[in-house]
Design goal:
heterodimer, A: about 425 residues, B: mainly alpha, 13 helices, 2 strands
Chain lengths: ~425, ~280
């Protein structure tokens, strides 16, 4: 495709990205995400009336009809919400009412000598047909919106998060609300030019939804939303220009959805894949630590014979698993350097690192049990289950703090000794116990 | 005559199906579903290579389930608000559907206008049977079938459904399986009704007939039983009015029907003495 043909549409996209980034976080925060779709449909009767009037009077009304129609729609919406119709239901009601008017209007257009296909095409977006006139309209709208945002963004944000507080603090709450709906009408009309009625919601919601995925200041959320808009609309624009027979609106909407999916999956550290990876790592660590703890407790109770040595069958009996599973777990400990195989292939021995880790886990468990009993008032027979989870979470510093808080205790609520870091091994606790 | 009957039955079926959506504050999910069934319809065209009503139904029901699953998954992530999840579901699935339409629409006999605005007037011209002096077109028979299914459900599990709608989370916790079956049944019927609605009255009018009667009914009576009686007579009144106006002014019937329902709703809002409490005849 000729590059000069694409210049104006891409300029339009670039200009549109700014107001979208400014307004989208407010729309999402106010829980008006579907309002984009509703407003897009509200533009339809205005577009039809504008076409009819232009044909009758001979003066081009352009987007004025759509803007007026959206503003009227917002007024009806507010009226319904004031009459205690639930927000979503009111939006649905306004949407269908205005679109029904548009369909009736379109059935009348042929009688006025106007081809309804012209209006219908506008419904589906005409990105590649955007010319300098449309660019000028979009630029004007963007400037108005940026100016209004500079003056009013704090009040808009307050309105988005807590309209009641705004009503209490300012006597101009209705004006603030009206100004927001006015600029929203301008933005939706511009978006309808580019993407069509059906997909306005994507443009109005996705940049804001991505920007608000993590805590942010107003400036940061704006910059994030701007980044998402530019990338999403840019990729969509390039795909529309290069791929044959693909409509602009859906491609751009899908590009934005693609950006959202990438962010939701890969955002560090809250992305789904990161979380899954962290959960798997935690699970593996928990399994290893539980195995180490089982060996340590075996030694402590004196059931295992010899210092830090355990056979596959003893380990299986201790953990209530099959010998095959026991061997796999012990092999995993060896791979991590927590244990090594002794001369007998069925017997494993804890390494010094393994002993340290096992002592840490057991110490965490017993200190936490003591803490729950003393400070939370939980009976001794109920503290074990809670400590089973927390023992894998506590760091050495946490343990030192806990120990200081508890006054360097020597035993847990069940009377078992709390191992000291680098202290004597369990065998030494028993009469005649061996050294490492 | 058959057009009037069709308008009445469509209003009754969609008006009944709209209750769970409006009660659970999921009105705009109706909007999402009525748009995303496009994906099922176009994929049915791609698979069957022609307009096949059975494939259309299967596609529409599958697309409804897909939309609800995607919306539910986005909700469960707890990173988006419910309305944002709806908007993302709508954008994603409708975007894919429209790209499919652009790619394969020219190869199959797909009339976008039919899906957007419905084919109400033409339904009366399709193959029909004569019975009791009335022509019974195929679509009317399917709509009547849906109405009978809904009536059977109304008779068999009225109390369960009422508990499910009013108690919400409590009911789901106590009877998870019943709730799931009710939801799956509702969704399947909704999928079938949506595809029939797309053919009859178009996307947006389908949403209109799901939502607007519910708002009207919630304003005229707090008792669900009375609301059902109101629905029967108000649907008849609106259908007759729309039929007369559309014949007189030569405009399509579905949008006139919606505008009439909206007008009745505004009157109900203005003249309702007080907002009635929903579920006043709760069976406890």
């Amino acid at each position: 495709m000729d590059a000069s043909v694409l210049l104006v549409p891409f300029l339009c996209l670039l200009v549109l990205a700014v107001p979208v980034a400014l307004i989208s976080p407010i729309v999402v925060s106010r829980r008006f995400s579907m309002l984009g779709d509703v407003a897009g449909h509200m533009a339809a009767p205005g577009a039809v009336a504008s076409a009819a009037l232009s044909a009758r009077v001979g003066v081009e009304f352009g987007p004025l009809g759509a803007i007026a129609s959206i503003i009227l729609g917002f007024m009806v919406l507010r009226w319904l919400m004031l009459r205690r119709i639930e927000s979503e239901t009111a939006q649905g009601l306004v949407l269908v009412f205005f679109f029904s008017l548009a369909v009736i209007g379109m059935s009348v257009l042929p009688r006025l000598g106007i081809d309804p296909a012209l209006v219908r095409r506008a419904f589906l977006g005409q990105f590649l047909a955007l010319g300098w006139v449309e660019f000028a309209s979009i630029l004007f709208m963007a400037l108005v919106l940026v100016f209004a945002h500079r003056k009013l963004h704090r009040l808009w944000i307050l309105w988005a998060f807590d309209p009641e507080v705004l009503r209490l603090r300012s006597d101009k709450a209705r004006l603030v609300e009206a100004s927001f709906f006015l600029v929203l009408a301008l933005l939706v009309t511009s978006l309808v030019y580019v993407s069509g009625i059906l997909l306005v919601a994507a443009f109005l919601v996705i940049p804001g939804a991505v920007a608000l995925l993590a805590p942010a200041t107003i400036r940061t959320s704006f910059l994030r939303a701007l980044g998402v808009s530019v990338v999403g609309l840019g990729v969509g624009g390039v795909l529309t220009a290069t791929l044959p027979r693909v409509p602009a609106g859906p491609v751009m909407a899908l590009s934005l959805v693609g950006v959202l999916v990438v962010v939701v999956l890969f955002r560090y550290p809250q992305g789904l894949l990161w979380r899954k990876w962290a959960a798997r790592r935690f699970e593996t660590r928990m399994r290893l630590e539980n195995a180490l703890k089982a060996i340590y407790l075996g030694l402590e109770s004196g059931r295992a014979q010899g210092s830090f040595v355990i056979s596959v069958f003893e380990f299986a009996a201790k953990r209530s698993i099959t010998p095959v599973e026991a061997r796999m777990q012990l092999d995993a400990l060896c791979d991590q350097g927590f244990a090594y195989r002794s001369g007998n292939p069925a017997v494993y021995e804890l390494s010094p690192t393994g002993l340290d880790r096992a002592q840490h886990v057991v110490r965490s468990h017993r200190l936490w049990e003591l803490y729950l009993e003393r400070y939370e008032g939980i009976p001794a027979h109920l503290v074990h289950a809670e400590a089973e989870f927390v023992e894998h979470e506590l760091s050495i510093i946490d343990l030192l703090k806990l120990e200081t808080l508890l006054g360097l205790p020597e035993s847990d609520p069940h009377g078992r000794p709390i191992p000291m870091p680098g202290g004597p091994n369990p065998e030494s606790n028993k009469p005649g116990g061996g050294q490492t | 005559m058959e057009l009037l009957l069709l308008a009445w039955v469509v209003s009754l079926v969609l008006g009944t199906l709209g209750r769970p959506l409006v009660q659970r504050k999921l009105t705009l999910l109706g909007d999402v579903l009525s748009h995303t069934v496009f994906l099922g319809v176009i994929l049915a065209y791609v698979v069957s290579g022609a307009r096949n009503p059975l494939w259309e139904l299967v596609g529409a029901v599958a697309a409804s389930f897909l939309s609800v699953a995607l919306f539910g998954w986005l909700n469960r992530l707890r990173v988006f608000s419910r309305d944002a999840a709806m908007a993302i579901t709508l954008s994603g699935l409708l975007g894919v559907a429209l790209i499919f339409v652009a790619q394969v629409g020219s190869r199959v006999d797909l009339d976008m206008d039919c899906l957007l605005f419905g084919d109400f007037e033409l339904l009366a011209l399709e193959r029909a049977w004569e019975f009791l002096g009335v022509r019974w077109p195929q679509s009317l028979i399917v709509w009547l079938g849906l109405l009978i299914v809904l009536l059977a459900k109304r008779i068999l599990c009225y109390r369960t459904e009422m508990h499910s709608l009013i108690d919400g989370q409590d009911f789901a916790l106590r009877n998870p399986l019943v709730r799931q079956w009710l939801n799956a049944f509702d969704l399947a019927i909704l999928g079938v009704a949506l595809i029939m609605g797309l053919r009859s009255v178009g996307v947006v009018m389908t949403l209109g007939l799901l939502v607007v009667p519910q708002v009207f009914l919630s304003r005229v009576s707090g008792s669900w039983k009375r609301q059902e009686v109101w629905l029967v007579f108000a649907s008849l009144f609106a259908s007759f009015g729309a039929f007369v106006v559309s014949r007189w002014s030569n405009v399509p019937l579905p949008p006139v029907l919606i505008v009439l329902w909206c007008a009745m709703t505004v009157v109900a809002i203005l003249y309702a003495i007080k907002t009635p409490k929903v579920g006043a005849d709760r069976p406890l």
